[in-house]
């Protein structure tokens, strides 16, 4: 073994240089009173230290499908990171290529805002455009009128922007307050508008597939790039919410409550007629092939794994939200409702969840409570309440959280078997269909409900079913290497903290959020099927499985064996952490919301076809020189020193 010193010494010198530099700056600031500190800023030391430590080691040389999935994710990631725009010229050109329109008015100011706040990627906002696309088929005045009228509608609140200020809302509550505060940080850049805010946990808008297709066709026809577009919003448009005015009931959304009903009975109308959801003779295996690996059943397409048109037939009676949601008020009309999450069949307009803006210790990550990977336990942890849907003595087996707690319970699994992959000689893997996971689960899982909630008439039917465990706050949870994140009766607000932590996040969900396109499954987190049938395959891969006998040939029927892939787990955990520090910051929430409201401001503008930013981007050449983009995310994996010692 060669000595590890050269690398460490280099790092030491780097830190030394940084320290000296910052001391000079401090002196400069302290000694020269006239210095304007908006010009010479005190550099933050964090700018000079790597946000995440390199992970030293090597990938396993074997043929496990997870290795391939990680490689493929990294390939896609490199394409993503290397193709980002790194100046304003390129950003606007790319916008036009992608959407066939000019960027909205105010885009230049948004770009400067985003760059000053160190946005790593200024192109990845297709969720916004995607959510708003169908509205190009609706006249702007009609959208404004709907947004105004919706403010007195069931489960909706309003946030209004007038004359660069957020004004009074008729319905109050923590969601309105939080959104109002967020918008206050950017309101100076925004035109007048009404925002119809969904104050329920569940998404609201579910337009039929055929109608949505029609809207999208219309949108495609409205695309144009007028060379004389005005870079400003139209002032003083009518049909915005006015206090005390009698609101006409022209655009009644006709809310339908489908609480307690089977969601897929309604959702399937929003699916492609060729999808599994609308074809009764689509076999389970056919749907699985669309998103699971043939070997091991791991999720190969995370989007499809949460696409109700694909998984709905199987999941419809196995997820609380789909089986018996506690509240669910939907409309079939295309109306402009802003929601924090939605499922694949919804037309709600997504914005970064209010939860993320609250300083709530249940959701906010603090590195003081975290541990280094090697100090964490080889444990998978999950805690939660029995939320998901309304529970009765004879229906709770259909809820997802309950299924998860059952699947991870060593006692309950003592008489069940699951399918996992077992290592044969030469690093190959084959299916081992009858693994008894009981002992594995007892050794590694710490899963349980903290309390029962949401039962009719009361939760006493659970008395002999669960043992309630103590809640664990983040400082306790982060002692485990593996953190599972599953839905409640809506999306899970812990996910951002999990991504930021040094532990590895494992996620199963049917909900979509603002950040989905920037998080790469198998690079930034481990995706899990909502059926949880891949759970033991995943966990035996990462944690390894010793069998009393040594690995034997492919035909043997002896006990399964898998070597541990702790290194792979640490790599994904570190990549997620580093990326979250670039892409899931509070600033990133503001940057997203700001662009969303510019785009929304355009779509409700009577002159939406002739406004936008039509320049070539050259006026920000100097700005771009002044604010260079952060470098591409480097590869966090460092092979052991003995292989790459460079002197
Ligand atoms: C540096 O730190 C200060 C205080 O923690 C913070 O307000 C500022 O935004 C930071 N600047 C950069 C460039 O990160
Ligand atoms: C993943 O699934 C989505 C939704 O079903 C589909 O649109 C997409 O093309 C799939 N991606 C790949 C790489 O197959
Ligand atoms: C689980 O562990 C116990 C105690 O070590 C052992 O007796 C039992 O055979 C194990 N069960 C399985 C299925 O390996
Ligand atoms: C809960 O409901 C059961 C069944 O209806 C009833 O027998 C029991 O008294 C209830 N318990 C409480 C604490 O209300
Ligand atoms: C696991 O299952 C056993 C048997 O059903 C039950 O007694 C126990 O409370 C369960 N454990 C947890 C943590 O729910």
TrEMBL record:
Ranges annotated as spanning the membrane: 12-31
- The source's domain of life comes to Eukaryota
Has keyword Membrane? yes
- The residue ranges of the Glycosyl transferase CAP10 domain are 304-601
Q: SMART domains from the entry? A: CAP10
Classification via Pfam families? Glyco_transf_90
Name the PANTHER family on file. Answer: CAPSULE ASSOCIATED PROTEIN, KDEL LYS-ASP-GLU-LEU CONTAINING - RELATED
Instruction: Identify this protein by name.
Output: Glycosyl transferase CAP10 domain-containing protein
Organism, by scientific name, is: Penicillium coprophilum
């Amino acid at each position: 073994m060669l000595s590890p010193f050269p690398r460490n010494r280099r790092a030491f010198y780097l830190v030394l240089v940084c320290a000296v530099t910052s001391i000079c700056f401090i002196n400069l600031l302290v000694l020269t009173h006239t210095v304007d500190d908006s010009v010479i800023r005190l550099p933050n030391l964090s700018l000079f230290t790597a946000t995440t430590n390199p992970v030293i080691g090597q990938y396993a040389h074997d043929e496990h499908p997870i290795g391939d999935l990680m490689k493929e994710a990294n390939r896609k990631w490199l394409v993503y990171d290397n193709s980002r725009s790194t100046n304003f010229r390129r950003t606007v050109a790319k916008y036009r290529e992608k959407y066939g329109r000019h960027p909205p008015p105010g885009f230049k100011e948004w770009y400067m805002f985003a760059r000053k706040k160190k946005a790593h990627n200024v192109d990845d906002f297709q969720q916004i455009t995607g959510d708003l696309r169908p509205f190009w088929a609706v006249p702007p005045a009609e959208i404004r009128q709907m947004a105004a009228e919706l403010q007195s509608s069931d489960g909706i609140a309003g946030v209004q922007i007038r004359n660069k200020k957020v004004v009074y809302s008729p319905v109050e509550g923590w969601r309105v307050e939080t959104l109002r505060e967020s918008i206050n940080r950017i309101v100076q850049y925004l035109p007048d508008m009404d925002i119809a805010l969904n104050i329920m946990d569940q998404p609201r808008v579910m337009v039929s597939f055929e109608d949505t297709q029609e809207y999208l066709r219309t949108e495609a026809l409205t695309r144009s790039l007028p060379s004389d577009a005005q870079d400003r919003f139209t002032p003083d448009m009518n049909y915005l919410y006015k206090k005390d005015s009698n609101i006409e009931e022209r655009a009644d959304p006709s809310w339908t409550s489908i609480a307690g009903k089977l969601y897929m009975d309604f959702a399937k109308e929003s699916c492609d007629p060729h999808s599994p959801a609308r074809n009764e003779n689509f076999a389970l295996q056919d749907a699985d092939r669309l998103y699971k690996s043939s070997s091991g059943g791991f999720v190969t397409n995370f989007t499809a794994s949460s696409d109700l048109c694909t998984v709905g037939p199987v999941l419809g009676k196995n997820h609380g939200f789909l089986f018996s949601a506690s509240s669910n008020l939907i409309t079939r009309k295309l109306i402009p409702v802003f929601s924090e999450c939605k499922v694949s069949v919804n037309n709600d307009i997504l914005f970064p969840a209010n939860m993320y803006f609250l300083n709530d210790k249940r959701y906010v990550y603090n590195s003081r409570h975290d541990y280094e990977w090697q100090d964490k336990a080889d444990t998978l942890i999950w805690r939660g309440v029995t939320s998901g849907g309304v529970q009765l003595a004879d229906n709770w087996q259909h809820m997802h959280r309950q299924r998860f707690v059952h699947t991870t319970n060593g006692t309950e699994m003592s008489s069940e078997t699951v399918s996992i992959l077992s290592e044969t000689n030469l690093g190959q893997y084959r299916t081992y269909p009858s693994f008894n996971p009981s002992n594995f689960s007892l050794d590694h899982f710490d899963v349980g409900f903290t309390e029962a909630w949401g039962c009719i008439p009361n939760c006493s039917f659970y008395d002999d079913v669960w043992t309630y465990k103590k809640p664990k706050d983040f400082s306790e949870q982060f002692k485990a290497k593996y953190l599972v994140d599953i839905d409640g009766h809506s999306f899970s607000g812990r996910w951002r903290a999990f991504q930021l932590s040094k532990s590895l996040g494992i996620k199963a969900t049917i909900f979509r959020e603002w950040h989905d396109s920037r998080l790469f499954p198998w690079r930034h987190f481990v995706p899990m099927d909502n059926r949880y049938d891949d759970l033991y395959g995943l966990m035996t891969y990462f944690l390894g499985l010793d069998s009393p006998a040594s690995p034997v040939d492919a035909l043997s029927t002896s006990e399964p064996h898998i070597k541990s892939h702790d290194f792979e787990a640490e790599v994904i955990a570190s990549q997620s952490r580093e990326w979250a520090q670039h892409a899931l910051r509070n600033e990133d929430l503001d940057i997203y919301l700001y662009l969303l409201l510019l785009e929304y401001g355009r779509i409700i503008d009577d002159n939406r076809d002739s406004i936008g930013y039509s320049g070539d981007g050259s006026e920000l050449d100097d700005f771009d020189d002044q604010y260079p983009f952060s470098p591409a995310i480097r590869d966090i994996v460092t092979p052991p020193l003995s292989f790459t010692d460079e002197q």
